[in-house]
Amino acid sequence: MINILLPYENAPKYYKLWAVQEESINFREDIASATRCTLSFAATELVSYLLKLGLGADVSENEGDFTIRLLCEEKECEEFEFICDEKSITIHGYGRAGILYGVYEFLEAQGIRWYSPSEEYVPVNNELFVPESKKYVYDMSKGRGFEFEGPLKESALLYLWMARNRLNISGLRPHTVSLQRKLCMTLKAGGHIFEKILSPYNLTENGEYFLDANRNWYGKRDEEITFENALNVQFCVNEPELLDYLADKLIDKVKNDWKEADYIDIWLFDTWGKICNCDACKKTGNGTDRALKLLSYLRKRTNDEIRKGNIDHKLVWGTDLYEGTSTITPPENPVSENLIGTGDYVQLAPILRCYYHNMNDKACKVNSFYAQQLENIKDLPLCITEYYNVSKFEDLPLIFTDTMVNDIKYYHSIGVRGLNYMHPPLAEWGVRTLTQHILANLTRDKNCDTQRLLKEYFENLYGEYAEDAEKAYKLCEEATKYSASWRSWSETSVLSNLISWNGYNTDVMLFRDDHLSKDAVEKGFAAAEMFKEAEAIMKSIREKVQLSLNFEVPDVIARGVNPSQHQKFKTIIPVLERVNEDLRGIKYGADCFEILALFTKYYEELYHKQDTTYTWNRIYELANKMSEYTFAYKYSNQQVEITCKDALDRSGVKELFARVLCARNKAKL
Q1: pLDDT tens for residues 20-63?
Q2: Cα angle at 530 between 524 and 536, to 5 degrees?
Q3: To bridge 326 with a disulfide, which of 1, 287, 331, 408 should be the other Cys (CB 3.0-4.6 Å)?
Q4: Environment class of 493 (CB within 10 Å of its CB; exposed 0-12, middle 13-18, buried 19+)
């Protein structure tokens, strides 16, 4: 029998109750209750999974045949230590997160894996594995996780999966904030906030439009400032009234809607190179200097509010560094002293990065540019916001195993200590489950054995079909290496150029970057074929699984009288569920790349004055097919509502299809 000892009186009687008290705890002020809650929850997880392993275990007041002691210091720290001998292990958490992560690390050492919110692997194991005595400090200590944009993206299952994989960066979510606290999440708020705060159509207390009342707030430019172009240039950071207004707005948020946030991100206008050209801003420096000036002012105001007692908790500010806000290059001037040592950070977002090459590959002019900027950022904590599911990818079945292994090691080597990505898949992970699994492991330990993790992944999820499944995944990864060239937000991507075309005849050749070059059409069709080959492999696995089913069917089939009861009686065949989810994503990926290749071919035929009939017929057939099915769902940015776009819409070319259809119809008249 395995006895688990907690450092509380009457723990065997009350630990299950303490584990679910998060709704009644102020996790900032009552650190003792917060610690007891998280430690007790860790104990429930430990007991539950030891029982699943087939080992007898429970919380006790006495030592057993084997004893597990859970100890935790009453502070916020994620480090922990194993102290082991033949008959016991002490999991010592240096803080709440430390004890929780220590328990999960111990369970993972038993072979347990949490692959997705709905998929776990628990081996048949009647022997306890005792790991070596060791202290654990995770590599990305500033944070590991996702960039959650917009409201309502909250899921208790997702947060539990994150905690089990020791991912801790999450968006602040009002309906699940207590659970997030119990699971030791670092909560973020902010993001794209200034477009709303400084909308030129906002009204002042006098009923004037903001633009009319505060024209000098909007970045100076050569042309006249209008309601339509007011946000096309970065706002002026040298207007004292504007800085006070922004600080007042943000601090009010911190005291109210964002009271539970630990980190506040301030992302400037997406202006793509246009910054205020007033004399004061020119003297301030480049776009990054200006962003840091705003950050410094917010730090000053925050410190003032903390001294006055108006803010009762530590608050960390962060600003983005990326092309869209003209902040991709390091600052020209020294960082303000009031930012040093506060924890305030900068996060570089390589939104246009290439996935064909590693980030530090000097042969890639796109990635080498980012590497050069990263290596010259000094004085502030440095984080990375990656784009493994950027909105322009629209949940394509992307796998980044190869580049992630290199890039995360590289990021760490130059001082990066936090990594998250946009945006977490909200459903239908499919083959992207592997991306999530490898990401979680690499951000904890950049030198983890990824080959072992890959082997385990396929064996644990696909069993005897592991080898075939791995082939399908490799095809998917190879198929999407040019995903940025096809679909990034860059004006150089094929999709960006196609959707800005009116669909009529053209005398300008469609732009392709160096990666696609003259072979864009061929590479697009090749990617689609690789997906179709992966699809065939997965269908073959599915057929073999279905033909091998041989479970006992009872004479009387149990029936639930409500959804929760019905769920208990459902027969779940994990390999079938996994393969079918993979297939839905793979089919969607094949269609997306094929229709992009077809539109590129169609454009080229028009340019060369060739017959487009055959290509158009293929587009027409595929576009209609994609209009008849959907893939997953998404939240509209900053909106409460969800949307369920059809596959053609998610491919990015729905409007283009309508324009070309219109052009062809007019040509018949």
Answers
A1: 999 999 999 999 999 999 999 999 999 999 999 999 999 999 99
A2: 140
A3: 287
A4: buried
To 10 degrees, the CA torsion angle through 338, 340, 342, 344? 100
CB 292 within 8 Å of CB 339: yes
471-485 burial string, b = 16+ CB within 10 Å, else e? ebbebbbbbbbbbbb
Range list of H helices, 354-449: 365-374, 401-413, 432-444
The predicted-structure confidence for 69-93, as pLDDT tens digits, reads as follows 999 999 999 999 999 999 999 999 9
How far is the C-alpha of 104 from the C-alpha of 512, rounded, in Å?
A: 47
Instruction: Summarize pLDDT for 166-214 with one digit per residue, the tens.
Output: 999 999 988 899 999 999 999 999 998 999 999 999 999 999 999 999 9
CB 640 within 8 A of CB 622: no
- CA 193 – CA 196 distance, rounded (Å): 6
Q: Which residues pair with 93 in a beta bridge?
A: 72, 80
Residues above pLDDT 70, as percent of the chain: 96
Coil, strand or helix at 234: coil
450-462 vs 432-444: helix crossing angle, rounded to 10: 140
| pLDDT, tens only, 512-562 | 999 999 999 999 999 999 999 999 999 999 999 998 888 777 777 777 777
Contact 463, 455 (CB under 8 A): no
Secondary structure (H, E, C), 207-222: CCEHHHHCHHHCCCCC
Q: Please, what is the angle between helix 401-413 and helix 432-444, to 10°?
A: 20
Q: What average pLDDT does this structure show over 133-156?
A: 86
Tokens read off for 230: 């007011």
Phi then psi for residue 407, to 5 deg, are -65, -40
Q: Residue 640 pLDDT > 70, yes or no?
A: no
Beta strands in 261-344, from DSSP E residues, in sequence order = 263-267, 316-321
pTM recorded for the entire structure = 0.93
Distance CA 525, CA 523 (A): 5
H or E stretch at 66: strand 66-72
Query: DSSP of 69-138, one letter per residue?
Result: EEEE-SS----EEEEE-SSEEEEEESSHHHHHHHHHHHHHHTT-EEEETTEEE-----S---PPPEEE--
